[in-house]
Write a structure and sequence with these properties.
Blueprint (H helix, E strand, L loop, with lengths): L1 H35 L4 E5 L5 E5 L32 E3 L2 E3 L1 E4 L3 H5 L5 E4 L7 H10 L4 E4 L8 H13 L3 E4 L5 H10 L4 E5 L6 H6 L4 E4 L5 H11 L5 E4 L4 H10 L3 E4 L4 H26 L1
Parallel strand pairs: 5-6, 5-12, 6-7, 7-8, 8-9, 9-10, 10-11, 11-12
Antiparallel strand pairs: 1-2, 3-4
């Protein structure tokens, strides 16, 4: 019995040491790749005839060091095309990408510049408070404008500001009078949503809108282009669609920043499970070949 226990202890110790070595090597390699990209050894012959092995030169101008830890390397990345946008400078922080979600798991594990927390229910302080506390980036919170109007939108906007929101978002149906009341009540940007080309941008700006958020579906680039033509300086956020072509079209039309709707957690988890199954199948296949 004692001998069996000693054997088990020895096996466990060996497994732990092996895993530790593998994790250390994996972490070092990942850190190296993220910082410098793939590096190919170059062999040169010196004047005395001896070979010299060095690493290929790295273009420092195009490399941005990236730090990810062993566990937090699988994050949700925004489409790289969004980086081509000019961005909007708010309190010294440049905002190009906004993740359109209220899912705390995604909010905590994405690389967006900001969170666009608007949802199809009446806004509630407990929800905005939870999102702002969980997020490590600025948050723009929805405060109504459709079903929720009047004094409540003003109260919600004040609460969002006190909770730490970078800005508040009002939906398209909001009246100009209500827009003015909200803009007078807070000292943070007020984002007004525009859904078609019939909206009077002049009135929206005159009544206190700071940023225009265009959500016109397939017509979004067209609406953005029209607004940009008449108001060259106005900050514009716009929905970018699902593919790179749509995002670039919207940016080229004049959008300064893009809201991106990420896949659901269920979709992300399904993709992860597919990778796990594929990896497991490869491991089993290798084991069968060795036998």
């Amino acid at each position: 019995m004692g001998e069996d226990r000693d054997i088990i202890k020895k096996d466990v110790k060996e497994i732990v040491e092996l895993l530790a070595d593998e994790l250390l090597a994996e972490n070092q390699e990942r850190s190296r790749e993220h910082q410098y990209g793939a590096v190919t050894p170059v062999v040169e012959v010196k004047e005395d005839g001896t070979p010299e092995i060095r690493e290929a030169e790295i273009n420092r101008e195009t490399v941005m060091p990236s730090i990810r830890t062993r566990l937090r390397h699988n994050i949700l990345e925004m489409p790289p095309e969004i980086r081509k946008a000019s961005g909007i400078l708010i309190y010294g922080r440049r905002i190009k990408s906004l993740c359109f979600t209220t899912d705390l798991a995604i909010i905590k594990n994405c690389d967006a510049d900001a969170i666009f927390a608007v949802y199809p229910f009446t806004p509630q302080q407990s929800i905005s408070d939870a999102i702002i506390k969980a997020a490590s980036v600025p948050v723009f919170t929805g405060v109504g404008g459709g079903t929720t109007k009047g004094v409540r939108t003003v109260a919600l906007a004040r609460d969002s500001e006190s909770q730490g929101a970078m800005g508040v978002v009002l939906n398209a149906p909001i009246s100009n009078a209500n827009l003015r009341a909200v803009s007078k009540a807070v000292d943070i940007p007020v984002v007004i949503t525009v859904i078609n080309e019939k909206t009077s941008i002049r009135d929206r700006l005159r009544f206190g809108a700071t940023i225009i958020n265009v959500a016109g579906g397939k017509k979004t680039p067209e609406i953005v282009r029209s607004i940009r033509k008449n108001y060259p300086e106005v900050p514009i956020i716009a929905t970018g669609g699902k593919n790179p072509e749509q995002i670039l079209e919207t940016i080229n039309a004049g959008a300064n920043a893009i809201t991106y709707t990420p896949p659901s957690v269920q979709e992300l988890f399904s993709d992860m499970m597919d990778r796990y199954r594929e990896q497991r199948e490869k491991e089993l296949s290798k084991g069968r070949k060795k036998k």
